[in-house]
Amino acid sequence: MPKKHEATKICDKCGHPNPATASKCSACNSSRFAPSWVSHLRRVNRNFAVQITTPSEEYETDITQRLTLHKWWPGGAATFNINTSAQWSEVKRIVDEQLSPYLGWQTKQELASRISLKIREGDKASEEFKTLASQDPHLLTDLLKSIDLDKVITDDYEQIVEAVTDIASIYLQADESLRQAILRLVKKLPSEGKQAIFALADLMESLTLAQITAVTSEVRRRLGLLATFKDRALDDRTYEIQGDNSIHRLLESAMWIIDDRYWLMHSNATLRTVIGRELAKKDKKFEKKRPDFVCGAVDNKLVIVELKRPSHQLAVDDLNQLERYVVIAEEYETSHTTFEAILVGNKVPRQLTQVLKMRSQKFSAKSFVDLVGETERRYKTYLDALSI
Length: 388
Description:
The chain is an alpha+beta fold. Helix content is 49%, strand content 14%. It contains 14 helices and ten strands.
């Protein structure tokens, strides 16, 4: 259950704090109060509020207060859209000017002031720099440009170099050439002063943009591959193609379509061949045409995915066949400690869903629509978040 705020009751209309015994808000006379886990509230409009809330006791975290965007409509609260820049500006204003002190958050200006003071006093400012980087990498470049070297005497440049060098440590994930370029610029501070600061800021900005560009390029590549997979998966003729160009080999090279955790999965062609041979020994229908399926491993998990052509109606027999793949795999491959087996087809009938409830949760079935739709939404959300 959420932790209660015994001392006050927050008005759900105007956000005014009231005594715990209040029946009406002393500021607006409303009798509607926010839930007990809301400690502060400001409204953007009638249905949209920015809140500070306390996580429930079951929510294992060191965070004691968090920011919550809440919108109500008939049917309850859910995710929602911010429709205009004016709404977003109002949210930012409320957070920056009214709620940040309650959360213990510092503004960029406050952090810049603290860092500048530490620089002048000869102290390191690594924690403040890291705080800025965790909020937004772009803030680092703004901060660098805000340092007023005209107010720093020459004898203090050594402290400035030490402080600014902390910035480079934040970007240890950058490639070696960029790290060296950062350090070269830092060393120029005593002789070049503000010119070196601006050059370093520009380099930081380039690094940030390069990272965003790399992520965006990869997401776009995956969306293109996903579109190819969708076109082929929904075409019965695709399933006549065997070998390296089959739909199963395409999926093996893009297992993030199934689960982002599987993007490093390596296929196991040998095990797949062994399973085909064993099936042929036990069932004559596999003598001429061996089954084709995805077979690979990630960490210590065996992953098997069976794709059925769209014209094929998924049935319990398909699930039983998938189970046979797993049983044979476990006879010949002992390095994995667990497995996941997925059946994918045009539609998952009710009978198959009911049988799956009786099987291990390591077995599942998905439709092409669900599989592709989930992945499309996930990756388009990435692009939207990057504003590309």
